[in-house]
Structure formats: C-alpha cells, structure tokens
Design a protein that fits this description.
This protein has 240 residues and is of the alpha+beta class. The chain is built from five helices and 13 strands. The chain has an eleven-stranded antiparallel β-sheet with strand order 1-5-4-3-2-6-7-8-9-12-13, covered by helices on one side. Strands 10-11 form a two-stranded antiparallel ribbon.
Length: 240
C-alpha cells in the first residue's frame, strides 16, 4: 500500500508539472508516461512475484564441474514468470535440477523460481520453453531449448547426470552431459538418438534428405545438433 500511494503521488507530481510547463502534445505526454512507468517499476519490482521465493541451494562442493547450462556465472536474460515478462534479470539455469535461479535485489543470495510457473526464458542466446508432457504427445514435462522453430520444431532437453566413483575409497563425482533431442511434427514429439531415427520422422522426404547430407558433406557423428537443425530446415524447405 505504501508503494501504491507513492506511485499515485508520483503520477500527480509529474502530470501537474507537465501541464504547467510543457506544450500539451503527444511527445511530451509520452515522455511523462514513460517516466511514471519507469519509476513505478523501480518502486514495485522488489515486491514482484519473481523476488518472492526460496533460496537456491548450491550442489555438493566436492564436485568441481558445474551443473549449469553453459556458464556457472549469472548472465542477464528474460523470463516469463506467473505470466509476467521480466527482462535483464541476472540468472542461471541448473540443468541437473531443471530449475532457474536469479540473484535477489539485495545481492546477498540466489533464489530459485517455481518451475511450474515459468512459461519460457532466454539465456545466453538460447530460448527455452516449458512443456507439460503426457503419453499422447510423447514428451516429458520440463524445459526445452528451441533449436529450430518452423512447421516442424527441433528441441533439446539439456541434461547433466551425476556420475560417482568411490572405488578408490575417496569420493569422486562429475557431471556428464546427456542431452536429448526431440522433433515435433504434427503435434507429436519424437525422441531422436540416431540419424536413422531423425530421417524416420521425416519419412516422406527421407531420400531427399539423405541426398542433401551427401551433397553438403554433413556428418551426423561430427556435430549431431547442427545436423539435426539443418535437417529440420531442409525438410521445411522441401515441403513448403
């Protein structure tokens, strides 16, 4: 309530100043509106849903490799949380737990977001969406990296698993990347582990796609992710 009253006072002060000292045209009104909105966000952001949550708990300190997507540092990104979009938020993506964490405004600690309330987020140039899976669509619930989005869609579920070793009597552990890839076609998602599996999803253009790979000298084993992106693009081009 205190913040809301401050907001009303701010609106009154700015609108009064504009009406008394500036020409009444749209440019000045827009400038005044932008100033009010900026000040409102500055006041209200600490009370926003994104800053109300539980503290993010670090993983086992004995594991030296980080459990995050691409970077163990907080990078600015955007997230749609409780249907509200927040931009320029210092954040990270823990792919072991499949959850987003952010830095609290006071800078003292990190907070975890409620994954069920995150619709999408962008991080380090990647766009992730949250899918709610079931047996009909063929995909599990979680965050998926959108690698290609056309009439067909290529997604990756970023995964790291903990591999432990106590054979020497000393605890050792590491995070191993186990990324999964999925193709969406005709409202269903298909897991892809091999080149043959991908071509099987694009069965009606299988021969053309094999010829495309040979002509362009694209090797699936050399870069699985890049090959899958190129196949999705070429399939859409062939069926345009």
């Amino acid at each position: 309530m205190q913040q809301f009253l401050l907001f009303l006072l701010l609106c009154f002060t700015i609108s009064r100043g504009v009406s008394q000292s500036l020409p009444a045209d749209s440019a000045f009104r827009e400038q005044a509106r932008s100033t009010v909105v900026a000040q409102y966000n500055k006041v209200m952001n600490p009370q926003s849903a994104i800053y109300n949550g539980n503290e993010y708990i670090q993983h086992d300190f004995r594991i030296k490799v980080h459990p995050y997507f691409q970077s163990d540092s907080l990078l600015k990104g955007s997230v749609t949380y409780y249907s509200v979009e927040y931009n320029d938020i210092p954040m990270g993506y823990d792919i072991v737990r499949d959850e987003i964490f952010i830095r609290h405004l006071d800078g003292g600690y990190r907070m975890r977001l409620n994954s069920e309330k995150v619709d999408r987020f962008t991080f380090n140039g990647h766009q992730f969406i949250r899918l709610t899976g079931d047996s009909l669509v063929g995909v599990r619930t979680g965050f998926y990296d959108v690698l290609y989005n056309g009439r067909t869609q290529l997604l990756s579920r970023r995964i790291k698993v903990i591999v432990e070793d106590i054979s020497t009597g000393v605890y050792k552990a590491d995070y191993v990347v186990k990324d999964e890839y999925w193709i969406r076609r005709e409202q269903r998602y298909y897991p892809v582990r091999t080149l043959g599996g991908a071509l099987g999803v694009y069965g009606d253009k299988k021969k053309e796609l094999r010829k495309y790979l040979r002509t362009e000298r694209i090797k699936f084993k050399e870069n699985k992710e890049k090959t899958l992106v190129l196949l999705a693009r070429e399939y859409d081009a062939l069926t345009r």
